[in-house]
Amino acid sequence: MNRVGATLLILLLVQLGVITMLHRGETTATSGAVSSALIDPGTYAVDAISLTDGKGNSLSLRRVGDRWLLPALDNLPADPVRVEKLLAQLTREDPGWSVAHSLAARQRFQVAHYHFRRKLVLSALEQELGTVFLGTSPGFRKVHARNDDDDNIYAVDLNLFELPITPGQWLDPRLLQVRAPVAIAADGYSVQRSSGEWRLGSGKKPDPRELQALVNALKNLQVQDIAAPAIAAEVATEEAALVLQIESLSGAVTLELFKHQQQHFVRSSEYPYLFLISAYEFDKLTGIDGFLLSGAQ
């Protein structure tokens, strides 16, 4: 290759390099850069989450050890799956390319500091790590999100329905589950487990299918929320549809089940609250047939 050809080749390579750099700059300016996460906690472990809605209602979650708790409900345990999913989306998942970054878009997508649907603040050791605003939904199980320190707006895999401000809806649904019952008594039947076998109060063996249905219902009991104080006061004057006295490896507990105005509730002797449950959970426990359990035809 002669000197002229080499010079032209070098000029061509320089031009290509300049064009590539300009293209990258334009792409970054119009589309936003890919971020590793909405909030980077660094070496800190998030131990507090604050949620606020657009009306000023707020909720706080705090971590003690390996458990997330609800201070508004005497530190009852929060749903660890829901909390970890939220933290993953905010601190670990890549939100992808931004969908907008203008000031006008903040208001349109409701992710401005003065106009939002959810404001989430993550903290560690009483130090704020970052603030994220959640706004409108661009699609199924998607929501627009923006870090308060950034102009870029993203569409992330979150659902505002799963981020309520009501503390009871963050409860660990497994709160009242009885994992290892050894004795269960109700009006109409009584069973005890001894030496690996279940026996009725009469000493006979209970019907295995009905017994398994009862044990499974206790092991898989799911709570949904806390009853409002007014409803709890009304239910307190009513007679329970079923009272279960249970002994387990972790201690003794009494469960009272109520049906009130087409809703279903359970009260546990362990907590000062009335818990909302589904009609399905209610029916599983109240539907146990004492005659069948005793083996009667």
Summarize the SSE layout with pairings.
Elements: H1 3-31, E1 48-53, E2 58-64, E3 67-70, E4 76-77, H2 80-92, H3 103-108, E5 111-112, E6 115-116, E7 118-124, E8 127-134, E9 143-147, E10 154-156, E11 181-186, E12 189-194, E13 197-200, H4 208-219, E14 225-226, H5 229-235, E15 242-248, E16 251-260, E17 263-268, E18 274-277, H6 279-286, H7 290-293
Antiparallel strand pairs: 1-2, 1-7, 2-3, 3-4, 5-6, 7-8, 8-9, 9-10, 11-12, 11-15, 12-13, 14-18, 15-16, 16-17, 17-18
In short:
With 297 residues, the chain is α+β, with helices and mostly antiparallel strands.
Structural category? alpha+beta
Main beta sheet strand tally, sense and closure: 8 strands, antiparallel
Low-confidence blocks of residues: 22-35
Distance between the termini: 102 Å
Kindly report the average pLDDT value. 89
User: Quick one: how many beta strands?
Assistant: 18
Number of domains: 2
Q: β content, as a range?
A: 25-35%
Strand order of the largest sheet: 4-3-2-1-7-8-9-10
Helix and strand sequence? HEEEEHHEEEEEEEEEHEHEEEEHH
Radius of gyration: 28 Å
Q: What general outline do the C-alpha atoms trace? A: elongated
Separate helix tally: 7
Helix content: 25-40%
Your description of this structure?
- The chain is α+β, with helices and mostly antiparallel strands.
- It has two domains: 48-170, no CATH class; 181-293, no CATH class.
- Helices cover 27% and strands 31% of the residues.
- It has seven helices and 18 strands.
- The chain has helices at residues 3-31, 80-92, 103-108, 208-219, 229-235, 279-286, 290-293, and strands spanning 48-53, 58-64, 67-70, 76-77, 111-112, 115-116, 118-124, 127-134, 143-147, 154-156, 181-186, 189-194, 197-200, 225-226, 242-248, 251-260, 263-268, 274-277.
- The longest helix has 29 residues, at 3-31.
- It starts with a helix and ends with a helix.
